[in-house]
User: What shape does this take?
Amino acid sequence: MTSVNNAPPEWERVLWRPQPFPDNYVPPSFLSALSKNPNVLPYRYWPLVLGACAISQNLSVVFIFLAVFTRLLDHTLDPRLLVALSTAGFIGGCLVWELMGHFESDAASSERRTCFSSSIQLNCANRSCSALGARTVKASLLVFLALIALAPILRTLTAPTSADSIWALATALFLVHAALADYTYSASPVQRERLTSVLSTNAAISATVVLASRLHNDLAVFALMLFSVEAFALFPVLRRCLQQMMPAPVQALVTGTLGLAALAAPLPGLCAAVLVSVTFGAPAALIWAQQYKHEIRGPWDAATPRGFEGDSGAT
Amino acid sequence: MISDFFHPDVGGVENHIYMLGASLIRRGHKVIVITHSHPPDRVGIRWLIPGLKVYHIPFPTLVSSATLPNFLTFLPYLRTIILRERITVIHSHASLSSLGHEGVLHAHLLGVRTVFTDHSLFGFADAASILTNKLLEGMLRNVDAAICVSHIGRENTVLRANLPPKSVYVIPNAIVADHFCPARSAPPTDTITIIVVSRLAHRKGVDLLVATAPRICAAFPNVRFVVGGDGPKMIDLLQMRETHFLQDRITLLGPVAHRDVPSVLQQGSIFMNTSLTESFGIAILEAACAGLHVVSTRVGGVPEILPEDMISFAAPTAEDVFRAMSEAIAHVARGDHDPHRAHERIRGFYDWTRVAKRTEVVYRAVLATPPYPLWTRIQRTMSLGLFVGPIYTIILIVDCLFFAFLEWWMPRENIDYVDVRWDATRFEKVAGHGNA
Assistant: This one.
C-alpha cells in the first residue's frame, strides 16, 4: 500500500509523517482499493426457471384445490370419487417415494434416507422398507379415521360466519400459505423444518377448514379435508425430495402437468397468467434487475475473523 | 464546534473536540462547544479549563448519547448562540450526531460557514448503513468542507456522501504524549505482559482474542494477559478463561477510566489489538506512545498511523494473529524493543498544535470561497434522489420560514451579545503550568 521512495517527494499513504502536500491532495491511488460487486454471481435464465418451478408447482396445487372445492360446492364432483382419487394418489405417492428411497439406498446416502423417513415418521429408528411401510400404513389410517370423526365438527365449525367473510379469510390464508412456503432448493434434509414453512402448512389447512363449512354434507367435508392434507402437508415433502433428486426434464414435466390441471380452477385465464408470469416472467425480471446491482466493497468494511482451522472448540 | 458527543462522556470524538478546541484557543481563536445537556448537573453554560465555553442544549438523548433527529427545534438555540457569540465557522463532528447535522443545516441562514469532521467508517451493504449514509449525504450537500481522520476514512466519506474528493481533507487525530509515558523502569523480559484495552465488542475482534489467547498462553509459559474494558463479549472471555484454567494468567480489569489507561499500559510490554474495523486507532497510538510494542490486525486506517517498524501486522485470522504475537514476544524477550525511543518518536509524529494549524487552513479555505446561494442549495438538495430530494428540500424551505419567523419574534437587537473574552494571559499566569 505504501511505497517508500526517498529521492523526489512522493505522496505516501501515511499519517505519522508530515508531507509536502496539502491536506486535500487527491493522490493518484485514491480509491484504488475499491472493488465493485466482488462476490456477485450472475444468474442464468434456465436455472432460475427451474428454481421457480417449485413456486409454480405450489401455486398449481392451490389452484387445483380451489377447482376441487368449487366442483364439490356445486355438486358436479362426487365426494366418493374424490376420496377414491385421494387414496389412489396417496398410494401412488407412497410408491414413488419408496422407489426413490430404493434408488437412493443403492447410492447409500444416509442423509437422503433421513429425508424420506422424516416426512411421515420422524425419528424412524428402523429404516428397513417393511417397517417403514407398516408405520406409513398405520399413520395414514389414523389420519383417515380422525378426519372421518372430525368431519361433522369441521362442517359446522364456522357455519354461522357469513360467506363473504369466509371467502376473504380463505383468500388471505392461501396468500399466507403461498408467501411462507419453503421453496428452498436442496436444503439439507437433516435440518429441521423452519417456522415459516410450518406456518404455511397451517395456513392452508385452516383455509380448508373455513371453506369446509360451505359444503353440504359430511362426506364432502371429509373428502375435502383428506385432499387438503395430501395436497398441503404431504405433497410439499414429496416435491422437495423430487426437486433434489430428479433431473430438469422431470421437474418441467411435473410443473407442466400440475399447471394444466390448475386450469380447471375458476378463472382459468387468471391462473394461467399467474403461473406463466411466475415461471418465466419473474426469473427474467430478476436477471434484468441484476444490471442495477451495485455493491461497493473496500478496506473499510469490517473484516471477517477466522479461528484456528479444525479448532471449533475454541468457544 | 457542535456535536452530541462531548464531555462528560468519554471517547475518541469527545476527546478530539476538546483537544482541538483547546489548541485553537491557544492559537488565539475563540471556540465554543455546543452539545446536549446531561441532567442533573451538566446543564446551561460551563467553562472548561483552557477557556472553552460549553453550551448544553436541553435535549433528551435517545441512545448512546445521540439526540433525536428533529431538524428544526435546534434553530432557536443555535441562532441565539451564534449571534451572541459572533461565530463565523461551525465545525460539526461525528456522522451520527443529529445536533451536528442540524447545525450544518441552519448555518447558511446565519451567514456562517460549515466544516464537518467524520470520525468513523461505515460499510455500504446493511440497512443501517444505507440509512445513515443517506442522512450523511443529505447533510453534506450543505457543508463547505469535510475533514476525515485517515486516508481510508476520506475514501469512505467521499463514497458515502458523494463529495468531490478535493473538498475532503485528511487531518489525523493526535495525542498528548506527556499523558502516555513509558514506565520508568524497563519492563522485565522474563515475564512478558500483553495488554489489551478495548471495548469488548464484536467489531473490536474479541473473538480473535478469545481464540488466540489460550494458544499463546500454552506456547509461552512466561506470558500473561491484562485485559481492560467491558462490553457484550466479556462473557466469552470469562468462559475462555474458565475452560482453559487461565485465571492466574489472564487478568480482566473490567471498565477502565480513560485517565487510568496510561497506568494500565505501563504494566505491559506488548499491546494487542484485534479490531475488525478501525478508522484511526487512537488506542494503538496511545499504547505505542507508552512504549509498548504493538501487534494489530491490518484493518482500516491502522496501517497509516505508525511506521512499519513500530507495529506488527496480522491478517484477521487466528493463525496469523498467533504468528504475529509469537514474533512480537520473541522480539520483546530479546530486549530489542526500546520503550523510551518509541515514546520519543511518537512525540515527533503527532501533536495537537499541528492538528490545529492544519484545521485552521481548512477554515481559511472555506472562508475564502463564496457560499452557495439558496437556489443552488435547493437544486443540490433536490439532486439527492427521487424521494429524499423533495423531503430534504421541504425541510430546507420550512427551516428558512422558521428562521424568518424567529427574526421577527426575537429581533437581533434584543439579543444579549457576549463582548468580554476569556483572558488567556491571566489564566496562563494562574494555572498555565498545567498544560504544555
Q: What stands out?
A: Chain A touches chain B at residues 1-2, 13-18, 22-24, 26, 30-31, 33-34, 295-309, 311, 314-315 (CB under 8 Å). The first strand of chain A starts at residue 35 and ends at 36. The radius of gyration of chain A is 28 Å.
